[in-house]
Amino acid sequence: MKDASPVSTLLVVKHNLSTSQLPTSKAEKHAYKDYPDGIHYLSLVGSLFFAAQTCPYIQFIVSIVA
Q1: CA-CA 20 to 30 A from 39: which of 5, 7, 31, 60?
Q2: According to the model, what pLDDT value does residue 17 have?
């Protein structure tokens, strides 16, 4: 790594998820609750980690989601 060159990424520095991004209205909460029907969240995140083993920027984004 001592000969590595820094590169820019598509990520915002120190990006965090916050409670202000939560659904607030009753319709938003209902849509949020019904969205993942049939999707196994942990399986999906695990598959993304497996697929992104060679792409650190994708791993970082998936770790934020996880």
Answers
A1: 60
A2: 72
